[in-house]
Design a protein that fits this description.
This protein starts with 7 loop residues before the first helix and ends in a 6-residue tail after the last helix. Strand 1 (about 20-25) and strand 2 (about 35-45) form a beta hairpin. Helix 3 packs across helix 4. It is globular, with a radius of gyration of 16 Å. The chain has helices at about 10-20, 50-60, 85-100, 105-120, 130-140; strands at about 20-25, 35-45, 65-70, 80-85. It has about 150 residues and is of the alpha+beta class. Strands 1-2-4-3 form a 4-stranded antiparallel beta sheet. It is built from 5 helices and 4 strands. The mean pLDDT is about 90. It has one domain (about 10-145): Endonuclease I-creI, CATH 3.10.28.10.
Length: about 150
């Protein structure tokens, strides 16, 4: 059986509830600045919902699916769909969600994510100024969750 693509509106609604747009900044001894910045688009679900992630992956034509073992916590296994390639994020994921608009508070995270992607496209994330901009965007991105 071949994997069927999904209606774009369904994906937008699904991501409004289950998706995550993130800016990750971590220490990295081998990087010039001692910091590494990355962007991720992710959806994590229980493993028994893997089929829907496969269909989202096929529809967006990018990303990877990872299996996560949470047995040490007594949880069911999970699967994660993740896109972290800047090229795929800027050429596939962002255009998809600009055309198929998010409707809930996740829209704010997406707007911030788009600002961050511009910094990556210009390679400014490789400068301390760019990292500082990303930190400000990330702080703003998480503001809605504190209300």
């Amino acid at each position: 059986m071949s994997i069927q693509i999904l209606d774009p509106s369904y994906i937008a609604g699904f991501v409004d509830g289950e998706g995550c747009f993130t800016i990750v900044i971590s220490k990295h001894k081998q990087k010039k600045l001692g910091l590494d910045a990355r962007l991720h688009f992710e959806i994590e679900l229980r493993a028994d919902d893997e089929e829907i992630l496969k269909r989202i992956k096929k529809t967006l034509a990018c990303g990877h699916i990872y299996h996560i073992d949470y047995s040490k916590y007594g949880w069911a296994p999970h699967v994660e769909y993740k896109v972290s390639s800047i090229k795929d994020l800027t050429q596939k994921v962002i255009p998809f969600f600009k055309e198929n608009k998010l409707q809930a508070k996740k829209k704010h995270s997406f707007d911030c994510f788009c600002q961050a992607a511009k910094i990556f496209e210009k390679k400014e994330h490789l400068t301390i100024e760019g990292i500082e901009q990303l930190k400000k965007i990330r702080l703003n991105m998480n503001q809605y969750s504190k209300k």
